[in-house]
Amino acid sequence: MFEPFLCLLLGLVAALCAYRxxxxxxLLPSALYLACVSAMTSILLYMLGASEVAMIxxxxxxxxxxxxxVYALSVVGEDTYDPTSIIPKPLAFLLVTVIALIAGGMAYxxxxxxxxxGDVLLAEVLWKxxxxxxxxxxxxxxSGVMGVLGLLSEQVQTRQTQKSAHRNTAEGLAVYxxxxxxx
Amino acid sequence: xxLTILNAVLFxxxxxxxxxxxxxxITRNLxxxxxVLQTLVKAAIMALVLAGNTxxxxxxxxxxxxxxxxxxxxxxxxxxALAVQVRRRAGTLDIARISTLRG
Amino acid sequence: MAGxxxxxxxxxxxxxxxxxxxxxxxxxxxxxxxxxGFSVAAGIASLALIPFASARTVIDxxxxxxxxxxxFTADGLAVTLTAIACVVGSLAxxxxxxxxxxxxxxxxxxxxVLLFIGAMTGLLLSGNLLFMFFFWEIxxxxxxxxxxxxxxxxxxxxxxxxxxxxxxxxxxxxxxxxLITYAALGSYQVADLLAQAGTMPANLLTLAAFGFLLAAxxxxxxFPFHTWLPDAMEAPTPISALIHAATMVNAGVYLLARFYxxxxxxxxxxxxxxxxxxxxxxxxxxMALTATDLKRALAYSTVSQLGYMVYAIGVGGVFASQFHLLxxxxxxxxxxxxxxxxxxxxxxxxxxxxxxLGKQMPFVRNVFILGALALAGLPILNGxxxxxxxxxxxxxxxxxxxxxGMLLGAGMTAFYTLRMTWLVFFGTARETFxxxxxxxxxxxxxxxxxxxxxxxxxLAGPMSExxxxxxxxxxxxxLSLFGLAEEIFTAPATYLALMxxxxxxxxxxxxxxxxxxxxxNSQKSGAGNWMTILSRExxxxxxxxxQVAGRTVQFASVLQKTQTGILSWNVVGILSAxxxxxxYLVWSVK
Lengths: 183, 103, 590
Description:
Helix content of chain A: over 70%
Oligomer: heterotrimer
Strand content of chain A: under 5%
Number of helices of chain C: 24
Helix content of chain C: over 70%
């Protein structure tokens, strides 16, 4: 009878981390809080019996994505921006609360039914029944690799494009000078 | 009303979704939006596994969750690459200022 | 084999479109060569497809539950029109080598032309209504892009938008017809619709029938949508010849012919088709009497001739309409390309400024006269045979008043054709142009089309044989060439029609000095004043069409305001929709 409370606790911690990630003024803490969310999710997935998915989640969600985020931050630098929201916050809050209540209420009835636990062989399902998914994933990973290359190769061509892109705007010039100085 | 693992996870899912949606609504920084999207997807993955368990088809739920996980990681990577590009060319990550750019 | 050839006639032009898009305007002679190569290859493939015509479905690819199978059927109707599209397409491309010489952005031009040819053949060969709609929309897109090819000219852009909106109205009709068919029969296959139309509920069948009629009228620029075609004349002339005379505008007629057996029994449908054809033919023939813009005059005559084809389908003469379609595609492409040669040489489209050009451009003059005589319907050119066939079908099966109207139209056709020829090539020179005769590439396409104008009527026998053999639902009797000749020369209607044509020519000759001064848009009084007033606004329908186009554009700009480009508001929209769905679910469960 201990496990459900652990689950609830993990979920609360995850939501809290997600909230901190959202409101944090700087981007780096945001990325770290996201890694926390990912870790909590991973444990929750494990407790649901999805150990393989939990492993992937931990390594990709907490590992790879965090690394990429931190890398991207190091490329663009900390950005100052206006923290005020474009749409009124009460409206956002109201909309989200109503949706969460309705969706939660609707799902509640189905989630109380007892789960049928048996031997779950993810590999078997994945390779036999959902073989198409695997191929889609291969294609996706390939495009992800292309994306990473795009992110990395930035450094090389940026000198040229920056000069041409910002030539005409004073603001652009300022940004450019700032970056030059940093380099 | 008894607390089981299942409805505890459901509660977490709804909470995470709510925080994610709220974040999506009020966030103005492009990279932050990627972060918020990530939290939303975590909730979606948990919901998929949960649905697999409650519908008696756990393998299917997990394989769908794995696919979503891969897809979402790729989305994050590409979105980050785009955000870096936008920062370089527009000089800002603020979506309100980006949207006023033309051409 | 037929499957491979179908793949070729759709695939080769699209491959060419991609190749030309990638050339990036670095080497214009390479672009010309590539375009000619791809289009001629497609033309050869389309001709090779003709012997394989059959009612059988050749390609059948499953596309999932909701779209039905992607099927292609190369029956007689489809292969004939495919051959027209690809062959006239390749001739228009060859013509463009001279006409578009030295123009910028050739890659965009040729890419859209080839994309169009591929989409047109796809539209003709497709056996699935949904994919037919898909190809239909691609042709509309290409038409728009090519009308607005000179996109720094506001008139060209406006003409393109107008054509796009008008043909979209038709697209809605086609889509509605396809969806109704699916709802009633559970299938998107054309063959199923033709076979089981009788089992559909009568009201649904009527809706589908008039949906297809709407689509056909909009695409073929028939009444009341007939004003977009003249405005589409801002396109480069080879485009006018290919898309707005020989192929795309025929798609509407093709649609009516294709589904004629399904809708034949719908009460009022045949009468509506007849009336649309008659009104279009007469209104635009009248407009052509006063037009002074060479290409607009040709455009009016195109609508008028398309009206003849629609009329023919309305009175049950499917073969007559398709035969006239073949003749018209050849001689109208010839007329447009010859006009293109004149416009290219003089730099103007105003016939009021031309005159006596015949001496300087003898080759162009000769082929233009040939095309004009075919348009007027004089023996033994191809236009004569097909027009007589239509009139005969109308006399034997259609209402008498419609026949009388079409006869009058034939006389007006002869009148405006002669007026056009006279204004451009004869009479007195109103301005001096230092012109040269057509270039080599132009001469090749003009010569081939002129040869076609003289000879395509010889194909009547094999064509009717093919249609008879491969269209199980149409009752087309096969007709040998001698049978055709006998039918036409023994019918008194022929001599009546010829007499009307002769009267039209004679009247022009008597009033030629006044007729050459009639102006489409002039304000000054004088001869033809009442005609000018009537035709100034296309009998007021120009106003109607402008309203439709204008309102659509206004509506679009209102919608545009909802696109702030600010992500947060978009998310609000998404979440609101999500909330609405949730509420609906909650409500529907209870």
